[in-house]
Specification:
alpha+beta; two-stranded parallel ribbon; 3 helices; 30% strand; elongated
Length: 147
């Protein structure tokens, strides 16, 4: 009986180490899938600058749906444009405001993908980060609505 006790202790130790390793990997994967607020802000700035650089619109309405409180508080500003953040309810289908809305920021391999559109059309954008910062690498039409 004295020989079985050390074997059980070794087996229990291995099981504890294995469960700790699995928990650490799960936590690492979860933290990898969260994009820092500063990275979200940079992606939003790149996307909006690209979308509205040639636009004649003076005011851009953006829904706060899917925008963190931190990002809303420090939302990117533009020189010649006024950005107004509106609640999802104020930007709904029955509203007079055709606000733009961001989807969730999602990791797909080495890319970050986010949808962006208004009540008429939308695109899915893919971004990649290099030494110079975040860059848009592709965009795909996700909806087109004609009135």
């Amino acid at each position: 009986m004295s020989r079985q006790f050390p074997k059980l202790r070794i087996l229990a130790g291995i099981l504890v180490l294995l469960s700790c390793f699995c928990a650490a990997r799960a936590q690492e994967r979860e933290s990898e899938n969260k994009l820092a607020a500063s990275d979200q802000r940079e992606i939003v700035l790149v996307l909006l600058a690209d979308k509205f650089k040639a636009s004649g619109a003076e005011t851009i309405y953006i829904s706060t749906a899917n925008l963190t409180d931190e990002l809303q508080k420090d939302f990117p500003r533009f020189k010649d444009k006024t950005v107004r953040l509106v609640s999802p309810e104020a930007a709904g289908k029955d509203s007079e405001i055709c606000a733009y809305e961001f989807g969730k920021f999602e990791f797909i391999d080495k890319f970050v993908s986010v949808t962006f559109g208004n009540c008429r059309d939308g695109l899915a954008y893919d971004f990649i980060k290099d030494a110079a910062g975040w860059k848009s690498v592709s965009r795909v039409v996700i909806r087109e609505i004609y009135y």
